[in-house]
Amino acid sequence: MVALSDCKDSNKISTDFPNNYIWGLTFYGKNVSLAVFEHISQIRSWVISQQEQGYSVGFVPTMGALHAGHRSLIELAGRHCDRVVASVFVNPTQFNNSDDLLKYPRTPEADHVLLESAGCHALFCPEVSEMYDDGERTRHWDFGLMTHSLEGHFRPGHFDGVLTIVKKLFIAVGPNKAFFGEKDFQQLAIIKKMTAEEGIPIEIIAAPTIREASGLAMSSRNVRLGSSDRDASIHISKTLLEARSIGRSQPPKVLEKWSYDQLSSAPGLQLEYCSLVLASNFASLENWSDEPSVLLVAAYVGGVRLIDNVIID
Ligand code: AMP
Question: Among this protein's residues, is 70 annotated catalytic?
Answer without folding.
Answer: yes
